[in-house]
Amino acid sequence: MILLNRSGAEILLDCLAREGVELLFGYPGSAVIHIYDALYGHPTIRNILVRHEQGAIHAADGYARSTGKTGVCLATSGPGATNLITGIATAYQDSIPLVIISGQVSSFLLGRDSFQEADIRGMTLPITKHNELVTRLADLPRAVKEAFYIARTGRPGPVLIDLTKDVTQMQDQAEYPDAVHLPGYQARLGPRPGPINEAAAAIAAARRPVLCAGGGVISSGAAPALRQLAETLAIPVAATLMGLTAFPAGHPLSLGLLGANGTAAGRWAVNQADLFIAVGVRSADRVTPHPAVFAPQARLISIDIDPAELEQNRSSRISLAGDAKAVLSMLLERLKPAGRPEWLAEIAARKATSVPLSSAAGLQPRAVMAALGRITGGGVFICSEAEQPAIWTARFYPFREPRTFIAAGGLGTVGFAFPAAVGAQAGNPGRPVVAVVNAAGVQMCLQELATLVANQLPVKALILNRRNPRPDRPQGLAPESQPDFVKLAEAYGAKGFRINIPERLEEILGEALAASGPALVDCPVDWTEEDLPALAAAQG
Questions:
Q1: What single-letter DSSP state applies at residue 488?
Q2: Which of 147, 143, 172, 144 is nearest to 157 (CA)?
Q3: Averaged over 504-520, what is the pLDDT?
Q4: Is the pLDDT of residue 470 over 60?
Q5: What is the pLDDT of residue 316?
Q6: What integer best gives the mean pLDDT of the chain?
Q7: Are residues 526 and 358 in contact, defined by beta-carbon separation less than 8 angstroms?
């Protein structure tokens, strides 16, 4: 396709539109000012003006996770670009498809320590799937086409285009390619027949199998195939934090969250299993803190699109390199329905034993999440802060749809949830979005409340506000050092609520969720029970 004689900034937007981009999250600056000039009045691309570049990339990330599309963000050179680094690393760890456009000083100023010059390409080399510096307008369409192709194929990930300012000003015509030509980059779809037949035979012979869903199930759209396999073969399903919504929480075969902070039933099932089938799961310490003693009786089947993840193996592993949806479909073709009544009965008995609430007075985090689940029926998007808010959400909110739980699983980024909710809400208008945060995390990117208000994005932030830190763990914010979140919300033009009386929990939560526009809900909680049951990494 020939793009007419236009500026580089206009050609960039034409390329983005050709890739189906409708939303762009960004913050202006001198190096990208011509792009912003071209954005005014653009017929198909809407700019969400954030209040900080870190908010832009987290919002693009939340958009990508919630929609399955590639998120796009834009920042200027120097500090604008470097403010993206935490968000790029977050997306890279969790395999999220993003295209990041950073402004750069003009090409004739490169390498001269010019004002706001920073080697963002070099800085992000270890945390991007690919990056490129564009100094010629003729290279821009190809760079954009390749960026989207690389970001969304194979194991997804962030791709950065560093664009010099003079390219955005140039006037010329350019040709947008219909296809990419990358001989050294091949996206794998399915494994060889030999290993797939071996895996099918192992599943058919297993008496106590367990399926584990990771983020790769979500990325590939394999949740229906996973459920079909579980139901056809009567296999219970556990999930990592990234794969949690791949299987409905209320399903009889669900084991819930697996790992150091997972359910007791899930841990027991893994320890007793004779076959463990990991689908799109990274070999990370939160799931397998001590690989030598993880699933000690089980043979392992690992399915992952990234062969590098399959190299972290042990002798009893069957490795299937390929897209999760394609591989599960191939397994289903080779397997017949089966029942395992004794195994499922044992698991059901374990699931019936719950962890008791703490004896401390006040609201417990699990009670808050359970109440949110009752009010919403498990049907909202939840963007969760790292660590304890994510764990309580994963353990006690009854998710029923893929992509509705959004958390920074690999990097554990504090400050992620609130701006991620901006992107999730922008990408899913008409669907309720809740950010579950703590007092520390919400204040890291609180300025994005202004973005919510300006764009009338009705995100509700539920602040699990720890008010009684343990004496032996003084870290964290003391109550007297925290702002009045209700007044702060009102200062931004949003609504503020506070739940001081446990008996009014559902009433106030319901009122906040029903409110028009964005809102903050300050919910003081007792954190005595922390995230029990939890295992230290060394315990396995």
A1: H
A2: 147
A3: 95
A4: no
A5: 56
A6: 89
A7: yes
- Residue pair 58/423 in contact (Cβ under 8 Å)? The answer is yes
How far apart, in whole angstroms, are the C-alpha atoms of residue 38 and residue 487? Answer: 38
β-partners of residue 254 are 237
Q: Which amino acid is it at 181? A: H
Beta bridge partners of residue 383, listed in sequence order: 406, 435
The Cα–Cα gap between 408 and 215 comes to 11
- Give the 3-state secondary structure of 216-278: HHHHHCCHHHHHHHHHHHCCCEEECCCCHHHCCCCCCCEEEECCCCCCHHHHHHHHHCCEEEE
For residue 497, give the DSSP letter: E
pLDDT computed for residue 95 by the predictor: 95
> pLDDT per residue over 30-39, tens digit each?
999 999 999 9
Per residue in 301-317, pLDDT tens?
999 998 877 765 555 58
DSSP 407-445: E-TTT--TT-HHHHHHHHHHHSTTS-EEEEE-HHHHHHS
Strand 23-26 relative to strand 71-75, pairing:
parallel
- The DSSP string of 171-205 is EEEEE--SS---TT--------HHHHHHHHHHHHH
Query: How many helices and strands, by DSSP H and E, does the chain display?
Result: 22, 20
User: Could you give the angle at the alpha carbon of 305 between the alpha carbons of 302 and 311, nearest 5°?
Assistant: 55
Distance CA 307, CA 188 (A): 9
Cα angle 78, 82, 86; round to 5: 170
Indicate whether 536 pLDDT > 50: no
For residue 318, list its beta bridge partners: 301
Amino acid at 296: P
CA quadruple 175, 178, 181, 182: dihedral sign? positive
- Distance of alpha carbon 217 from alpha carbon 277, whole angstroms: 12
Number of CB atoms found within 10 A of residue 66's CB = 25
Token representation of residue 347:
């698991």
Shortest CA distance to 517 belongs to which of 496, 499, 495? 495
Q: Assess contact for 60 and 72: CB atoms under 8 A.
A: yes
Contact by Cβ (8 Å): 512, 434: no
Q: What's the pTM value of the predicted model, to 2 decimals? A: 0.93
* DSSP class per residue in 292-332: GGSSTT-EEEEEES-HHHHTS--TTEEEEES-HHHHHHHHH
User: 201-207: long-range contacts (C-beta < 8 A, 24 or more apart)?
Assistant: 202/275, 202/299, 202/301, 202/318, 203/233, 203/235, 203/275, 203/277, 203/301, 203/331, 203/335, 204/335, 204/336, 204/338, 206/274, 206/275, 206/299, 207/274, 207/340, 207/343
